[in-house]
UniProtKB/TrEMBL annotation:
Highest taxon above the source species: Bacteria
Single GO molecular function: kinase activity
The GHMP kinase N-terminal domain, residue ranges: 59-124
Keywords: ATP-binding, Kinase, Nucleotide-binding, Transferase
Entry protein name: Threonine kinase
Positions of transmembrane segments: none
InterPro entries: GHMP_kinase_C_dom (IPR013750), GHMP_kinase_N_dom (IPR006204), PduX (IPR012363), Ribosomal_Su5_D2-typ_SF (IPR020568), Ribsml_uS5_D2-typ_fold_subgr (IPR014721)
SUPFAM superfamilies: Ribosomal protein S5 domain 2-like
Organism: Caldanaerobius fijiensis DSM 17918
Domain GHMP kinase C-terminal: 188-248
């Protein structure tokens, strides 16, 4: 057995914003500390590989100038802590982790923009592949605007019970809601100022706008209950089934808010747990 590399890429709790901004459908993902891991080993045991992971490996080899046949010498395993089909970026994380690990085996460190172009050649991609909060065209891999680091924030994830195939949803989606330019200006200002309140307000605007596209059950109850207990707002998986309650890391009462939703027993959301909103990109570990 030869060189061995493990890489990881983070999840998202939906998006701070997703919708029409400047006349185009764009996203700003909400990155959190849950991960997919890819282990790549030269001349190790061969394991069955999911279609997207295999495609990520093949396209990465092509990008770095290695022959496709090299794949036969690579042992690739993917393990993920990220729920599938909930709008939490599991596919992007799997693809990004595999790309990062395969490139690293050959001594190549992919830039985020390079990784984005590989990833979107497989499927629409979240902006979790960047180490800053980023306005991103998820379909063609274009960075519209890097916004900066997220302020000190946590999210209480209300993980949806149902699953949604994002690719199929995009095929049948009939409209994109109202333009979100005002929400985006507020988000950008919030990131610049380090204002949790502004970031959460912008995210809440986008979440409510998304109700006419992919409604989330009990969203008004969740939002009102969260605000009443000191939360700053909400985020949603715009093409998934989960909701996140945004909490100021400096003054929010995470335990109190999380405990309330754990004991609310809203049947559409079968898991409740807290996560940190992070500023990082796919990396070798």
């Amino acid at each position: 057995m030869g060189k061995k590399i493990i890489a990881r890429s983070q999840a998202s709790c939906g998006e701070f914003i997703q919708g029409i901004i400047g006349g185009k459908e764009l996203i700003v993902s909400c990155p959190i500390d849950m991960y997919s891991y890819a282990c790549v080993e030269v001349d190790g045991p061969i394991y069955p590989l999911a279609k997207k992971a295999k495609e990520a490996a093949v396209r990465t080899l092509d990008f770095i100038g290695e022959k496709k046949e090299v794949l036969d010498r690579l042992s690739i395993q993917v393990h993920s802590d990220i729920p599938v089909g909930k709008g939490m970026g599991s596919s992007t994380a799997d693809i990004a982790a595999v790309c990062t690990a395969v490139a690293a085996v050959f001594g190549v460190q992919l830039e985020s923009t390079e990784l984005s172009h590989i990833a979107v050649s497989i499927e629409p991609t979240d902006s979790t592949i960047f180490d800053k909060i980023t306005l991103f065209d998820s379909r063609n891999g274009t960075v519209i605007e890097p916004l900066g680091k997220a302020p000190d924030m946590y999210v209480i994830v209300l993980e949806g019970r149902d699953r949604l195939d994002t690719i199929e949803f995009h095929k049948i989606k009939k409209h994109s809601g109202h333009p979100l330019d005002e929400a985006y200006r507020l988000l950008r200002s919030g990131i610049e100022k380090g204002s949790v309140e502004d970031v959460a307000s912008a995210s809440t605007m986008s979440a409510l706008n998304n109700q006419r596209i992919l409604p989330k059950p009990y969203i008004d109850f969740i939002l009102d209950s969260a605000i009443a207990r000191g939360a700053a707002g909400i985020t949603v998986a715009h093409t998934g089934t989960s909701i996140g309650v945004l909490v100021d890391g400096r003054k929010g009462d995470m335990e109190r808010i999380e405990d309330f939703f754990v004991h609310s027993h809203i049947t559409d959301y079968y898991k409740v747990y807290g996560r940190k909103i992070i500023n990082s990109k796919p990396e070798v570990v």
